[in-house]
Structures are given as structure tokens and as C-alpha cells.
Design brief:
This protein is mainly beta and 208 residues long. The chain has two helices and ten strands, in the order αβαβββββββββ. The chain has helices at residues 2-17, 32-36; strands at 26-31, 41-49, 52-66, 73-88, 95-110, 117-118, 121-122, 129-149, 152-171, 186-207. Strands 1-2-3-4-5-8-9-10 form an eight-stranded antiparallel beta barrel. Strands 6-7 form a two-stranded antiparallel sheet. A hairpin with a 2-residue loop joins strand 8 (129-149) and strand 9 (152-171). The longest helix has 16 residues, at 2-17. The radius of gyration is 20 Å and the shape is elongated. The relative contact order is 0.17.
Length: 208
């Protein structure tokens, strides 16, 4: 929570600092894709020049559900923050843009019920183990913003990039003898590199 409060306070300071610039150079947004996955998020975008903006974004998730009659907990906990300079081909906050975002955060996943592989990632391990760790990376993005009203935009963004993670692996569920496994018993520490899609956003933005 301390990291989330720090991010929000920093974003608000950036917003207040920008109050002296011309109209419609500050935007506040939320990504509906992340909202739909129960990950509340907030983005603040500052206009720097006619074709340049800077976006600060953060999200947080902290939910867990226990199966009836068992000790298994479906868990998805994470926080994430990113910085993203954007270049607009026509004018800031309108039309096509490209960007590079740098991001990082922490996660704690367990028993998510996933049963597939994607690129060089095997998500099936999340069904039988708990993974807790750090993640950092960077991506190259393309997007498009539609002006739907004087102060409102709808924005689509898609990105690819690289993510590095360091994780601690814990056991969950029951062992071969049917006894519950200690969720805090660390089994191993590992590292993983991912290359592929890193961002999908459909955002609603209010412009000042």
C-alpha cells in the first residue's frame, strides 16, 4: 500500500504542477480492460509539446477466494507502475501515437486455474504452486485516440516488449500423503524472461 500511496501522491503533484499550462493538456484515464479483470487503475497524461505527452500509470489488485471444503486459495495480488513518453503524429491527445513504456511491480499469484502455454511461458504451474516476486520491463506501443466529446477521449493501445521476473516458488494444496502444504514454505527461487505482448488497453480519458 505504501507504494500505491507514493504513486498516487506523485501523480497528483504532477497534475497540480501542470495547472499553469494551456487548456486540455492534462488527462486522467482508466483502462477498462484492467478494470474488467478486477485491477483498479489510474493514468495521468501530461501535454509537453504539440506532439509529445508523458503518461504515468498505476494499478493494484488484491483478491483471493477460498474453495469450499478445502484450503486452496485462488489468489491474484499485484501492483504495477509505468512511465510512458508518447509521440503523436498529428497533435497530442488525437489520432495515432507511438510510445515506449518502462514499468515494474510485484506479484503474488496462486491456484489461478490456467491450463495453457503461451510463447515461452507455461501458466500451468500456477495451478499447483504459488509464485511471488518482482517484475520489470519495457515495451514499444502503438495507439489511437478518438475525441468523443469536448473533454472526453476513447483510446486504444497495443504493445509488445520484454519482461524480466524474479520469483519465489511455494507449494499449495496437498502433498502425496494428502496433507496440506505450508503456503509459506519456499521451494525454490527462479528467474524468467518473457518477450511478447505487454499491453492491451481500451481507456476512457477526461481532458482538462
Amino acid at each position: 500500500m505504501r507504494k500505491i500511496v507514493t504513486f498516487v501522491m506523485g501523480a497528483l503533484m504532477a497534475l497540480f504542477t501542470a495547472q499553469g499550462v494551456q487548456a486540455q493538456t492534462v488527462g486522467i484515464k482508466t483502462n477498462l480492460v484492467s478494470d474488467g479483470l478486477m485491477s483498479p487503475n489510474l493514468g495521468i497524461e501530461l501535454g509537453l509539446a504539440p506532439r509529445w505527452t508523458m503518461q504515468f500509470e498505476g494499478q493494484w489488485n488484491n483478491w483471493g477466494v477460498t474453495d469450499k471444503g478445502s484450503d486452496l486459495v485462488h489468489q491474484w495480488n499485484h501492483w504495477y507502475a509505468s512511465v510512458e513518453p508518447r509521440y503523436w503524429f498529428c497533435h497530442k491527445f488525437a489520432g495515432h501515437f507511438i510510445s515506449i513504456n518502462v514499468f515494474g511491480g510485484e506479484y503474488d499469484f496462486a491456484h489461478l486455474g490456467l491450463n495453457f502455454k503461451f510463447l515461452n511461458n507455461d501458466f500451468r504451474g500456477l495451478n499447483s504452486n504459488r509464485y511471488k516476486g518482482l517484475a520489470a520491463g519495457a515495451g514499444f506501443n502503438w495507439g489511437y485516440a478518438w475525441a468523443v466529446a469536448k473533454h472526453w477521449n476513447i483510446e486504444f493501445e497495443l504493445g509488445v516488449g520484454w519482461i524480466w521476473t524474479r520469483y519465489d516458488k511455494y507449494g499449495i494444496g496437498k502433498d502425496a500423503a494428502g496433507q496440506p502444504v505450508d503456503r509459506d514454505l519456499k521451494l525454490e527461487r527462479g528467474y524468467h524472461n518473457y518477450v511478447g505482448p505487454t499491453k492491451l488497453a481500451l481507456s476512457v480519458e477526461y481532458l482538462f
